[in-house]
Design brief:
2 copies of one chain form a homodimer. Chain A is 68% helix and 4% strand. A two-stranded antiparallel sheet of chain A has the order 1-2. The first copy, chain A, has helices at residues 28-47, 50-57, 61-68, 71-96, 104-111, 116-124, 129-147, 158-174, 176-183, 190-205, 211-223; strands spanning 10-13, 16-19. Chain A has one domain (10-174): Orthogonal Bundle (Tetracycline Repressor, domain 2). By secondary structure, the first copy, chain A, is mainly α. In chain A, a hairpin with a 2-residue loop joins strand 1 and strand 2. At the A-B interface, helix 1, helix 6, helix 7, helix 8 and helix 9 of A face helix 1, helix 6, helix 7, helix 8 and helix 9 of B. Chain A binds a DNA duplex through residues 11, 13, 18, 20, 28-29, 49-51, 59-63, 65-67, 70-71.
Chain lengths: 224, 224
DNA sequence: CATTTAGCTATACGCCCGTACAGTATGCTG
DNA sequence: CAGCATACTGTACGGGCGTATAGCTAAATG
């Protein structure tokens, strides 16, 4: 389940970073990283403890420091790992399907599966900036294809729209708990997922504003 | 700027809660609560310290415990306070304007102004559930009005759509930092706000899916 | 074989934080 | 005036945490 493709198994000692040759997973280092992803995701960065992470990884707490240097560096390693998973996912999608047919962000959200909780926490805590930026970039590419079919040109820069769309997609995992409570279903369950999909379809296909109201509002914005 | 209408200045001692008569603000209790809102909002619940909060409130750390009992209880008092601000805001909007003309959630977001950072943090950390639920309720009322003008009935329960919409609106303050970085403007600045408004208008008035694609997708969902 | 290097453990240090509590001043009540 | 509750301070305690470091083992290196 836990994908891994570490060619960069480096360790930390006395402030220097060295490269170890072993590309095999099940490495203690990888186990620690996976445990950290889980703990950070479940309890948040502050509440998660190095000792707790070490325990689930089946190693001593000292080894965590040996490999990652500090708690903050461990967090950054997790972010970097997620970035790598995302870019690999991106390559795969790009190879498999025609551009514009898939909502990258939605795909990323679902495929990031076990890391979703971590990603949500990290983003809310201000971390994982690279992952967010990458998702915006992907969303931008996707929008570029969609824009070709639009009758009138959009007023707003594509990057802006991509950023807003990305943020809104990510609202689902970030606010997962509240959303599930309000909807009465666990969002991560099959029924919850379907309900969400239907709600999004409804929103996407039925604009809240009429086109007339929207253009009037835009005109008002431009005047002001 | 900090509204306050405390008729409930109660203090904590030995597990019991008593009511004090003074409705005047500038009370130490109110100052502590305001400082807590700021500290929790800026640093998050875990990183914020009682001593730090006490210092900005200009009181001793012991007084914080005296009034609120524990850090967790202080957090809950903040949540409750926000709930009250929201409901008061709601009454005001309801009195001023016709129903359906205003996007409640958007109004709430902006009017909650100084508390936005706290609200965002609290929601991301799983707190402030009552505030979220209240916003869903308001959004539901708003949708009820909009639905009257819709040609075909929506497939999805109104509450579900309200919840999803609320979550997406809240993505803005919650992911404020990342969003601002990706957009190249601070979202809380006037330009950022206008950009965001335009992007939302664009999304609201130009459905990402054509109606045909959406109905096809919905049919596929129903088959599956 | 001698020496180094990486992986790993165990223990200890020191800080910071939430909490507890004793104590003081002030003002209200009967 | 006596008694008591409330607002508030200062200090102290205990624990948990990140971090540091010494030391062990085993494999790699020359």
């Amino acid at each position: 389940m836990l994908l891994s493709f570490d060619s960069e198994l480096h360790s930390f000692k006395d402030g220097k970073v060295t490269i170890a040759p072993d590309p095999e997973d099940l490495t203690a280092r990888a186990r620690i990283r996976d445990a950290a992803l889980r703990h950070f995701g479940e309890h948040g960065f502050e509440r998660a403890t190095i000792r707790g992470i070490a325990e689930t990884a089946g190693v001593s707490s000292g080894l965590v420091r040996h490999h990652f240097g500090s708690k903050q560096a461990l967090r950054e390693a997790c972010d970097e790992y997620l970035s790598k998973v995302l870019s690999r996912l991106n390559d795969q999608v790009r190879a498999d399907s025609h551009p514009g047919t898939v909502n990258y962000v939605a795909v990323a959200r679902t495929t990031l599966g076990p890391y979703q909780r971590y990603l949500a926490r990290a983003l809310a805590e201000g971390s994982a900036a690279a992952v967010f930026d990458e998702m915006v970039r992907l969303s931008e590419e996707w929008l570029a294809v969609l824009d070709r079919d639009r009758p009138d040109p959009p007023l707003v820069d594509r990057r802006i729209r991509a950023a807003v769309g990305t943020a809104m997609s990510l609202a689902v995992p970030v606010l997962h708990e509240h959303l599930s409570r309000a909807m009465g279903v666990d969002l991560f369950s099959p029924e919850g997922d379907e309900l969400l999909a239907q709600a999004l379809l409804d929103a996407y296909s039925h604009p809240i504003l009429t086109v007339e109201a929207a253009t009037a509002a835009q005109a008002a914005l431009r005047r002001h």
